Amino acid sequence: MADLHTTNILLGIMAAVSVLEALLLIGAGIGGFLVYQRVMSLVSDLEARQIAPLREKVDAILVDVKAITARVSQQTERVDQAITGTIDRVDETADRVRSSVREKVSQAAGIVQGVRNVIVSVLQHRKAA
After folding, report:
1. Greater pLDDT, 106 or 72
2. What is the pLDDT of residues 54-91, one digit of tens each?
3. Distance, CA of 80 to CA of 88 (rounded, Å)
4. Radius of gyration (Cα) for the chain, nearest Å?
5. Per residue in 81-109, is it b (16+ CB within 10 Å) or e — as a string?
6. How far is Cα 59 from Cα 47, in angstroms, rounded to an integer?
7. C-beta pairs of 89-94 under 8 Å, 24+ apart in sequence
8. How far apart (Å, rounded) are the C-alpha atoms in residues 100 and 108?
9. How far is CA 129 from CA 40, 117, 118, 122, 123, in A?
10. CA 129 to CA 125: how far, in whole Å?
11. C-alpha torsion sign, points 64, 66, 67, 72
């Protein structure tokens, strides 16, 4: 019987320790939940005081960047059109100059050819005479 009495005491101690462990786990869970609530409250407060103003500033900067980007895009289009127009005019001018030079060179070559033919003809008539 003494053996059962010791076993019962040990079982009682083990039951009491199990109850204490369960209470400790419940307390740790409640403590963890309270810490979670406080941390979330701090995060919300920090977000309201620090992050919200920064976000407003960043949004304003992004609006400015968008406006500047649109303006640069418009200016780039204008410059591209101006360059394209200038290149087209240069091409037209080069074509006109080329055709004008070609025409004048053809006329000069015709005159030189005519003079040459006259000289050759005169020289041939002199040799024959």
Report:
1. 72
2. 888 999 999 999 999 999 999 999 999 999 999 999 98
3. 12
4. 52
5. eeeeeeeeeeeeeeeeeeeeeeeeeeeee
6. 16
7. none
8. 12
9. 125, 18, 16, 10, 10
10. 6
11. positive
Question: Token pair for residue 43?
Answer: 């995060």
Residues present in the chain in total: 129
What is the C-alpha separation between 73 and 68, in angstroms, rounded? 8
3 state DSSP class of 129: coil
Q: Report the distance separating Cα 7 and Cα 1, nearest Å.
A: 10
Lookup: tokens for 28: 């740790």
Residue 61 vs residues 69, 71, 120: alpha-carbon distances, Å: 12, 15, 85
Concatenate the DSSP letters of all residues of 5-69 into one string. HHHHHHHHHHHHHHHHHHHHHHHHHHHHHHHHHHHHHHHHHHIIIIIHHHHHHHHHHHHHHHHHH
- Given a cut of 80, whether residue 11 has pLDDT beyond it is yes
